[in-house]
Amino acid sequence: MINAQEAGDLNTKACSPKFLLPGSALIWFFVGHYCPSRKFAVTEFPSGGVCLSESAYRPKEEKEEMRKLSITISALIISCIGYSFYGAHGLNSTSGQAATFNAQQRADEPSAAVKAAIQKLSSPDPRERTEAACALGQAHAPAAIPALIKILGDDAPVEQPVCGQKGSWSAKGDNKISPGEMAAVALSKIGQESVEPLINALKTEGRPGRANAAFALGMVRDERSIEPLIAALQDGEWQVREKAAWSLGLTGDQRAVEYLAGALKDAEWHVRAQAAWALGLKGDDRAVDSLIAALRDENQHVQSQAAWALGLKGDERAVEPLSLALQAQGEDVRSQAAWALGLKGDARAVEPLIGALRDTNAHVRSQAAWALGLKGDKRAVEPLKVALNDADEQVRKQAAWALQMRGLQSARQ
Question: What residue ranges define each of the domains in the chain, with the CATH number in brackets?
Answer without folding.
Answer: 4-86 (no CATH), 315-413 (1.25.10.10)
